[in-house]
Write a structure and sequence with these properties.
Helix content: 40-55%
Shape: globular
Oligomer: single chain
Order of helices and strands: EHEEEEEEHEEHHHHHEHHEE
Strand content: 25-35%
Largest sheet: 5 strands, mixed, barrel
Length: 274
Amino acid sequence: MREPAWRIFAAEYNDANHVLEAKEEKAPKYVITPLGAKVNRLFIVGVLTDVEEIGAEGIRRRARISDPTGMHVVYAEAFKPEVASILADMEIPSYIAVVGKVRIYEPEEGVLYLSARAELVKEVDAKIRNYWILEASRSMLMRINAIRDAMNMKNPTSRQLKELGYPPLVAEGVAEAIKVYKDIDVEHYEFLMREALSFITAKKEVKKDFGEAEEKMLKIIEELQGENGAIWEEVINQAEKEGISKDIAEEIISALMDKGKIYEPQLGKLKIVT
């Protein structure tokens, strides 16, 4: 049976540190996240922020894809040359959809690096990205509820969770997560989910031309961005020091995003499109 592709935010996937591996030869490996996603395949939609050619044997390209909670790292390997070619030809930033398998690198015991091995890649638009955020949030909310129900059980099992109406994969993943993760910070993931949803609901339609103020904001972002991006609050604070009110600064940031001059490599950070 083909494994389902999970709509999962980068923050939850990257927080995972447990791999479930069957003893049978060639059996699939599963990454178990703190909220109990039992992931063998992923469906990622976000902003392509970086693509680089990799010289390591068997790997053609490494890409970084930003969603509202963080960054997915995706590899295009030699046996999928068409995927590597698509990534190489895409503009940065662009909205991108990727279906891939979990890629697990464990250089030593207790150290786990997670990424995805791309199977399919396609350029998409903001409408598809926003729909993916809704679907990923819906999936996360189900697991949050399942984790809470499991926390109220003395010795939670997948059977008990299935009896409450949760799908088998969710029930199995949550039962495993409860065993291996201590003190799961459910509120943290609720906050991330709300922030992700606000990312698509709080956008303003901006049609004004702010003239010189736009150039000033671009300069501020460029000076503050470093390698990882300028922190939103620091940009606003600097703008106020230079005579641009907070409300106008936020409108200019939205306008610059609409014009494709800046983007968010991750939530709350800004970078210039080069």
